[in-house]
Amino acid sequence: MIVVLVGMMLMATVAVNAQQKGLKRVYNEEINPIEQIDQALVKAKASGKFVICQVGGNWCSWCLRFADFISKDADISKLIDDNFEYIHVNYNPRRSANAEKAQQAAALMARLNNCGRFGYPVFVVLDTDGKVIHIQDSGFLEEGQSYDKKKVMSFFKNWTPSAVKK
């Protein structure tokens, strides 16, 4: 029984790695996520944009899949570039043995209104003052083993600065 269980776990690991193969790793695991958000807010405020934090990690195949999806679609890329400072905020839901990383992870979740409750990736929209104005569960944007362009475009359009300020 144990051999079967170990074999199934090994197959699951291989399947996840195969899904991620060829996808660009977009999360910087070395930077402080709070500082990353603060830097994006400075840029956003100067340009009148909002910040979107795509919270997840290189460990998450759906996170990498979304990053790949939006980078390959000119309409989505333009909508994002015109309205948002878009950042990939690294978070590992498994508590790190490193006390500093664990403290950063807790501070990040507190700052982003415990966005991890929706799973990963999760999208957090911040206004120019850094206030969380929306948390988007990525599951609603999925279609099959990818994402639905119409749903993704709708999400971004509904949270642009001009749409929110109407």
Question: Summary?
Answer:
The protein is an alpha+beta fold.
Written account of the structure:
By secondary structure, the protein is of the alpha+beta class. It is built from seven helices and six strands. The chain has helices at 2-20, 33-47, 61-71, 74-83, 99-111, 149-158, 161-164, and strands at residues 50-56, 84-90, 122-126, 132-137, 142-143, 146-147. The protein has a four-stranded mixed β-sheet. A two-stranded antiparallel sheet has the order 5-6. Helix 4 (74-83) packs parallel to helix 6. It is globular and about 55 Å long. The model is unreliable at 12-18 (pLDDT under 50).
Layout of helices and strands, plus pairs?
Elements: H1 2-20, H2 33-47, E1 50-56, H3 61-71, H4 74-83, E2 84-90, H5 99-111, E3 122-126, E4 132-137, E5 142-143, E6 146-147, H6 149-158, H7 161-164
Helix pairs in contact: 4-6
Using brief descriptors, characterize the structure shown.
166 residues; alpha+beta; four-stranded mixed β-sheet; two-stranded antiparallel sheet; 49% helix; globular
Which strands sit side by side, in order, in the main sheet?
A: 2-1-3-4
The gyration radius over C-alpha positions equals: 17 Å
Number of strands: 6
Q: Let me know the average pLDDT.
A: 89
**H/E element string?**
HHEHHEHEEEEHH
Morphology: globular
- Class computed from helices, strands and strand pairing: alpha+beta
**Low-pLDDT runs:** 12-18
| Strand percentage | 15-25%
Number of helices: 7
Q: Tell me about the largest β-sheet.
A: 4 strands, mixed
Cα separation of the termini: 60 Å
**Helical proportion?**
40-55%
